[in-house]
Amino acid sequence: MEIKKTFDHDNWTQMWAGGWGLLSCSHFGNQYTKEFFFGEIPFLSQSIIIVREGKSVGWAQQDDKDRVGALLCAEIIKDQTFAVSVSRQLKKETDKVIQFMDKLDRQPMDFEAYQEFWNRIMMYYYPHIQIKYVVDYLEPNILKELLPVFEEARVYAEPVFKRTEEFLITTAQHVAQINNWQTRMVLSLRQDEMEHVLQNGKLPPREEVEKRYCHAVIVSDKDGQDLLVENEAETIEKRLIKTNTNGMLKGSIAYIGKAKGTVRIILDPLQAEHFQEGDILVTGMTRPEYLPILKKAAAFVTDAGGILSHAAIVARELRKPCIIGTQHATKVFKDGDFVEVDADKGIIRLLL
């Protein structure tokens, strides 16, 4: 598979960042490019997901995001009850996913249960994606009216992210124990490999999987999925990430205000002992488990996310300066940098 020739930085945007392993990301890539359809066209023409030691970042072409946003806006302009319907659907699918996991009580899944699990995840993500992307394209007056409806649905659905990855880890632990593998290695399998294991009990060569955990890039489109490691993965990541910013970075404003403080890059909220009151949180995206850190932070900055992201919602609740969707804040700034967050203008400046 070749990366499309339009692979210049400005045509790509970071969709999300989080704690999903390669196995989940392999599923996501296939869903985005082959299973989620808006109109007659898949959600994304191409998806790129970078995975490093169990943390991942998803990228899409801006043209795809714009196309979907315009489609969904047209639906809402035609009939605003569409927004209410999608929000209800998201809550309904949230309940179904959680009930499915509760029913299995975190027991390992067989092949049939594994397929059902991912089918339910897909049904959940369809309204989730609709809500997540339409808000960036609505006219301000329509957005003001519908934002409370969308926000309520997103908050209701938020627990699914953490629960589903924890649930998948249980199955990976079971497979690892049977085969004398490490759990993190099972979570580094591709979708087709995991399905093969659950059907036939056969794992791919260990040395091949070992390379993926440290650094891998998954490239998906309608024709298939490629998994790149080592130098090839590094090449793709360098083409995506732009760090030459002269100490200034722009993003979208989630909540206005200004703050100065010390940058603390936190990618795992369980490893934030050094975070002090008044520090500036810089991360990929936040989840509910980040809340104690967000309460201590003077301001927060994220690589990915829109106005319905967890960080944006919490910023509005806590009335703290917040800039989202910077694409590269965790790469541009270093732990210990002293910065100014100007969320009135959507700019972060390096001061020291």
TrEMBL record:
Residues 275-346 form the PEP-utilising enzyme mobile domain. The keyword ATP-binding applies. It comes from the Bacteria. The keyword Manganese does not apply. Keywords: ATP-binding, Nucleotide-binding. SUPFAM superfamilies: Phosphohistidine domain. Transmembrane segments: none annotated. One of its GO terms (molecular function) is ATP binding. Belongs to the PEP-utilizing enzyme family. This is PEP-utilising enzyme mobile domain-containing protein. It comes from Candidatus Uhrbacteria bacterium CG_4_9_14_3_um_filter_36_7.
